[in-house]
Specification:
6 strands, 1 helix, about 150 residues, mainly beta
Length: about 150
């Protein structure tokens, strides 16, 4: 029993001394730039935009649409650049004929878009992009055919 008390006393005395040893701690902060990182964060630019629109007709039909977009641009090097747009869209219809009322067709949609541009010289540009067009800009249709 006496040996146990002596051991516990020594552990309690030595614990503060051992705790002062500076052990290496990893930096897990993803926003701290590093030259050795796969994607250094100092090359990223981010901006945001919002928009809202609504309309109504003389027949009493109406619509509303709101959009939030997060624009991200990443420059791998001066010749290679990535643009990413994440659009969050909320839309629906309404009735404005005799009494203003919102219809039960409120919807949300996430629409991603990106482009990757490579410009090896001033006269050469190679670009790959993906855009999700709306109902109004379908290919091979005139604008009046979509109304």
């Amino acid at each position: 029993m006496r040996k146990l008390i002596v051991c516990l006393t020594l552990i309690v005395i030595m614990l503060p001394l051992v705790a002062q040893i500076d052990l290496p701690r990893p930096n897990l902060n993803p926003f701290r730039g590093s030259d050795n990182a796969l994607l250094p964060m100092d090359r990223i630019q981010m901006s945001h935009s919002m928009g809202f629109q609504a309309g109504t007709s003389s027949a009493g039909d109406g619509y509303y649409l709101s959009r939030y977009t997060n624009h991200i641009k990443y420059k791998f090097n001066p010749k290679l650049e990535l643009d990413l747009d994440l659009n969050f869209v909320n839309y629906g219809s309404m009735n404005t004929s005799s009494k203003f009322s919102m219809n039960d067709d409120n919807s949300n949609k996430l629409i991603p878009e990106f482009s990757l541009r490579y410009k090896p010289t001033d006269t050469i540009l190679i670009q790959v992009e993906m855009n999700q067009g709306t109902y109004f800009n379908q290919p091979r249709k005139a604008w009046y055919e979509t109304w």
